[in-house]
Amino acid sequence: MEDESFAMNGGDGLNSYKKNSKFQRQGFDASKILLRDSIQENFTIQNNLNGNITTILRIADLGCSVGPNTFACVKTIIEAVKLKFETHQDFKTQLPEFQVFFNDQVSNDFNTLFKGFSVDRNYMVAGVPGSFHGRLFPKASMNVMHTSFSLHWLSRVPEQVTKEGSPAWNKGRVSYVSSSDEVVEAFSAQFVRDMEGFFAARSVELVGDGLLALLIPCRQESTLPSDSILAHIYECVGLSLADMAKEGLVSEDLLDSFNVPIYIPSPSEVKNLVLGMKSLFSIERLDELLFPTNLSTPNDIRACVSHIRATVEGVVCKHFGSELNTEELFERYFHKIEEFSKTPRFTNIENVANLFMLVKRNAVNSI
């Protein structure tokens, strides 16, 4: 089965991801120093087969969407690598050329991404459409790879949660936060499969000692999957759709077969997955950054709604089709988020535990 394509809203309009990705930018800004310092400390200057310093350094940002956050990530990586060269006595005059590959789903709005490139950028660019859960690049071709706020998106909705009669059928809900153990396990198992596929692909594409930087939204350690603030925020989309289904505004059958393809792991879930691949990767840096969700004012709530709309509207419209009034859906969603923000549950789980991890491709057995 091929991966499904879940792209963010394109363009640069009011509901676009480009205009509504400030939460991701804030998360990246909080981890920027970690990214810069960990790459500078762990980057290995490579020699080619003739014993000369590699003259082209290749970087990939996986799940780049349409900008502008991806450009800030790439700039930070390049600055860190350049500093590594400039502070090395033998290589400070041998700066490589930089080639950057921007990857996202085939349905991503690459035209908007390309229009955002700075004319004075100091690197060559290419767009790479395709799912990062599988191979994207030739063997041992990449030096540094990066992804932020993308790996919680699954390659597909687990099949069993949308099938009537299945023990994991998630009837009337779009996430796992208030569902049975079977539903939670289905989402968790899909996340594990996807992450294993992601790391397996990167292990082939990275050179020996190549670096992979990850920034992943997580729930806090030692909490249940139902204690994820992000999953609850997406579940409010389902509650809004359920109200519309009761009023005959959308099909109940369509609601029963719809789930948002996300899973919010704990930091240890991610760490243990990497540790299970210790023959391929070593963890060089691991930091958990608590990030509060602010829903204290109507403006905060409206910003949250705009952000979620930019990320999930395409998935919703693809499933429900032309019968869905999206303006009404997201107006109802505003009120659901407002109600949720006043509950004790929100107060107890309002933090997102963004996980920053830098891993290195082991030189042993590198391809």
From TrEMBL:
Q: Coiled-coil segments, which residues?
A: none
Q: Example GO molecular function term?
A: metal ion binding
Give the top-rank taxon of the lineage listed in the UniProt record for this protein. Eukaryota
Q: Which Pfam families match?
A: Methyltransf_7 (PF03492)
The protein's matches in Gene3D superfamilies, at most eight in alphabetical order, are given as:
Methyltransferase, alpha-helical capping domain, Vaccinia Virus protein VP39
Magnesium in keyword set: yes
Q: Name one GO biological process term.
A: methylation
Signal peptide coordinates = none
Q: What are the alphabetically sorted keywords of the record?
A: Magnesium, Metal-binding, Methyltransferase, Transferase
Which PANTHER family does the entry link to? Answer: S-ADENOSYL-L-METHIONINE:CARBOXYL METHYLTRANSFERASE FAMILY PROTEIN (PTHR31009)
- Protein name (database record): S-adenosylmethionine-dependent methyltransferase
